[in-house]
């Protein structure tokens, strides 16, 4: 785990002033590398001793040593591809690295998961009159997966990738509607506006996004996977997988909360699909 991953995984344990330092570094790590301790302290609106204390919390000897670790972390991987994969890697190496880094990211997401927020989200979803799933870019595919899961649950659902359709849907929202927005960074401006519109029209907004992000602050509640992946520099990979797992968790909670009678309806859906498939070949060996 490099220094940026440590910051992301430990951010909830920092003091208020230390978190300010962390947020400045996460927002622009390249600039942090070239900053003096005085400059970083000023940008974060903290004292220089606070910056040093923050650095020691991350097992570095001080600010110069911290910057060295940060530079080494940023130098890893292949920009615009994956931080864990080098340009010279062959199929064996990049296959292993992608699997290993994804499993590590899911472990971080599991350890940082707020079960109370999951339980509350399941409560909200099971009582919804209508559920809308929205995302853009890589998160749009996650929203589509959520639609596929919840479409069979006998509750009105929709999913739009077009931002204009998302806006119109939220304008027509009412009390009892739920809007679920997917965004790893929580910094996508159109999605922040969508959350604002939905809340102005009395919908409940659940954000599967970064804590304390602009989007997270506009949602009624926020579920974060805390996966340390810089999608500004690399292709979304592990963060997208973590979002898909969160969809599976919410869908599972939804079905269990509805009880055995509701699962009978799911059986009917499965039975209706059976004629569309070839029979499975049984292996009796």
From TrEMBL:
PROSITE patterns: HTH_RPIR, SIS. GO terms for molecular function: carbohydrate derivative binding; DNA binding; DNA-binding transcription factor activity. It comes from the Bacteria. One of its GO terms (biological process) is carbohydrate derivative metabolic process. Pfam families: HTH_6 (PF01418), SIS (PF01380). Residues 121-260 form the SIS domain. Residues 1-77 form the HTH rpiR-type domain. This is Transcriptional regulator HexR.
């Amino acid at each position: 785990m490099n220094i940026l991953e440590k910051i992301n995984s430990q951010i909830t344990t920092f003091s208020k002033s230390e978190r300010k330092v962390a947020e400045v570094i996460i927002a622009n790590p390249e600039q942090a590398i070239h900053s003096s301790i005085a400059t970083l302290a000023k940008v974060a609106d903290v004292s220089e001793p606070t910056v040093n204390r923050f650095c020691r919390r991350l097992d570095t000897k001080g600010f110069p040593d911290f910057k060295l670790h940060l530079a080494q972390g940023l130098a890893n991987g292949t920009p615009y591809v994956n931080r864990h994969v080098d340009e010279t890697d062959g199929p064996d190496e990049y296959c292993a690295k992608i699997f290993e880094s994804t499993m590590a990211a899911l472990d971080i997401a599991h350890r940082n998961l707020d079960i109370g927020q999951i339980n509350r989200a399941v409560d909200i979803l099971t009582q919804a009159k209508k559920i809308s799933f929205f995302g853009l870019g890589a998160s749009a595919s996650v929203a589509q997966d959520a639609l596929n899961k919840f479409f069979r649950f006998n509750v009105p659902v929709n999913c739009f990738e077009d931002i204009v359709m998302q806006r119109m849907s939220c304008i027509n929202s009412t009390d009892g509607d739920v809007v679920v927005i997917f965004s790893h960074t929580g910094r996508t401006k159109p999605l922040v506006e969508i959350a604002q519109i939905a809340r102005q029209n009395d919908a409940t907004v659940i954000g599967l996004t970064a804590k304390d992000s602009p989007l997270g602050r506009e949602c009624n509640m926020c579920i974060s996977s805390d996966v340390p992946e810089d999608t500004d520099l690399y292709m979304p990979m592990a963060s997208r997988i973590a979002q898909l797992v969160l969809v599976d968790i919410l869908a599972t909670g939804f079905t269990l909360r509805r009880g055995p009678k509701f699962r009978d309806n799911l059986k009917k859906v499965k039975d209706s699909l059976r004629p569309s498939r070839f029979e499975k070949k049984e292996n009796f060996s």
